[in-house]
Fold this sequence. Notes:
Number of helices: 12
Shape: globular
Distance between the termini: 23 Å
Amino acid sequence: MILDMHCDTILGIQKNPExxxxxxxxxxxxxKMKKGNYLLQNFALFVYQNEGGDAYEDCQKLYxxxxxxxxxxxxxxxxxxxxxxxxxxxxxxxxxALLTIEEGAVCRGNVDLLREFYEKGxxxxxxxxxxxxxxxxxxxxxxxxxxxxxxxxxxxxxKSKGFEIxxxxxxxxxxxxxxxxxxxxxxxxxxxxxVPFVASHSNxxxxxxHPRNLTDEMLHILGEKGGVSGLNFFGAFVNPLxxxxxxxxxxxxxxxxxHHMADKGGIDCVAMGTDYxxxxxxxxxxxxxDLVSWPDMLHQSGFTWDEVDKITYKNALRVYGExxx
Length: 325
């Protein structure tokens, strides 16, 4: 089975109203997930906060899109907020949808707004995207021409509001996601939280030296804290530029990340975070349906079947069980 901690499909549907979650031209839909043997998909409400809009209001519109899709196809998929609901869906042959937010700016640094999203069923939040917000800083800077440039930001961690937000998340049972967060922010989260946290869609920096990926030290800390990192299928985070000058996601490279992640963070640290519908470029697994072959590839690369199950769904599900209330 597959538990994928991150996709941007809801934004794709919102931008193209003719698309539906049942069947579409995107990477993820209900039919593709069933072919890929999915248990659960995290659906991110991704807000691009620097487009001049209001991050909170934009997130509300995405949430309504998500709810509309859930209400249209209850016989196929249902939103979940607890382990019991996940298990009930599995027993009745339904897919599970766990709602997340990608961009902590939607809370405006306000715990009351965070609680409002929790009450809507949000159970994970990526603290930053590629812009500074009230919570902290990303591993990215904006140059004088307004272009984003990735770099490993070890100097800037969580802001005072950031500590307040993650404490509230821990208290109410919402998972903290450090993908995109600065290196300094990662260390702040690791030293402050008492429960496991996740990097929902991040790979290994030792293999692909992009600051969106985790260092060996981070992987070790994440594993020690009982957290997981989701293997990201975006070529730029999978392998350095190939000789052709293009990036692509190849199974052989993903397997290198999986084994390195297991070596540095422990086998219980490895999970799935495809980033489907959040990237462009060639991918050996172009849609959710194509993941049906992924478990066999993991096994053939040297993982035991028990380890394969951990990577594809059990590790993430364990963290959900420890954090969700």
